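Hello Y.,

Per our agreement to keep a running log of every chain we model this quarter, I'm adding this entry. I've kept the format consistent with earlier entries: sequence first, then predicted structure.
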Amino acid sequence: MLRSNLPDKTLYSIFAFLEGATVMAIQLIAANMLIPFFGSSLFAWGATAGITLLSLALGYLIGGVLTQKDIGKSSLYWTVLLSSMYILLTPTISNYTLPNLVEFDPIAGIIIGSIAILLPSILFLGIVPSFLIQFWTKTDNEPGKATGTIYFISTLGAISSVILTGFVIIPHFGVTLPTVILGLIPGSVAFLLLITKSKVFSLAFFIPLVIAFSSLKHENQVSSQVKLLYHSEGLLGQVIVSDITEFEQTNRLLFVNRMGQTGVNLNTGRSISHYIDYIIAVASVLPLNSEVLLLGLGGGTLANQLEGKLMHKVDAVEFDARIAEVAKRFFSLSNNVHVIIDDARHFIEKTNKKYQLIVFDLWKGENVPSHALSLESFTKAKSILNPDGMIIVNFNGFKVGNAGDGGRSLYQTIKAAGYIVHILSTGKEEKYSNHLFIGTLSNSTDLSAINYPLTEKNMPIDIQTKFLDTDKFDPNHSAVLTDDKPILEYYNISAARIWRDEYTKSYTRYFLKDGTPLFK
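Predicted structure for the entry above:
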């Protein structure tokens, strides 16, 4: 039998390693389950980390109390088994719970979702070290050594788990299958140890096991509206490409964490993102064959137009290699676009190449990376910008109320970096529009001298009417964003929530209705 073939300390070491590895793996998996519904903000990661620590703290407390009693090894096995049974049910719990939380306040939804996914399983795991320390101490009567050894082995498990889960398992296998395996391995060990002791109730382990394996069968319903072309989970979030047909029009959309990043109308071949036309219009004032740095590739629609329509030479920096793959496979990214897999800020810091135009089109879901839109980042960008060049920063179109705090802060920051700032609005209704923050180094750049005309409903648009009066741009509730104070995400909470709500109403309903799996 399993028990008779293993020395006590070896068995305790196995459980300590599994405890540490499981805690860290389920935390990473939980975050990736939450992100498609609530975005990849610091709040999602903060909530999962906070609930993990709370669950462990409660487990440590309960474990300490229980070890005051005379407990046997079966208590350890039952604790591990209960944790594993809940982990096996986690994909099913997530599928039923998370869609019903999207209407909640985002922070409340993230916290409730984190509790539902994490608290029971990690609480039970938090009890395990106390049991192991007590059993180990009974063997050699050295409590200090026992405590250090157990936590050392547990930490080794956690380190191994972070590396494997974050960089190998989730990117290659998604989150559902790893969750099932995560519950299966420690659960099977505990089950075998219990069944050898004739603990027949341990057979209940097979109930969540059957439910878990049924959750692996993602059979999409046949649908005339949604065609899933690509689905990938990774540490950087969920990437999906879908063709969605409505009113006899088919749009191909790239979603990152269930937020649209690129959309192309397959009937017309045109982008459905109106802000791209505005960027092309502004970029058309530059000489042909200008060197352009595009930070954020998306599906490559903007890169293609900068290269194809304006004949500019485009270097596109993209952090997620999956996005570059998707742009080529599904959005016909031009081979003339030079794609660089790197972090935008890191590339700005290291390159010596000079550019006529730098476009910051950096979105991950509904959020933007604060480190790339800081005072220091914009200041460094000046050093690789030609004297008559410009930067364009794509941001959401909110300018009033709390939703405008992020935009006002961005304006103050670009201005503080020494640019002359113009703000171009792409629409009338804030939640459906973008603001393009255009920074030049001199007044000699004539932004009205566009060579690519703007139209709306086949009618020409005077671009001058689309610029905001920056003298009336309210500086209240804003701040200069620095590396030391990266609070853009905080200032942009309201705007991000509105955008997330709009996409949930517009597109998530298609995925839920047509059986597209929430996670891979």
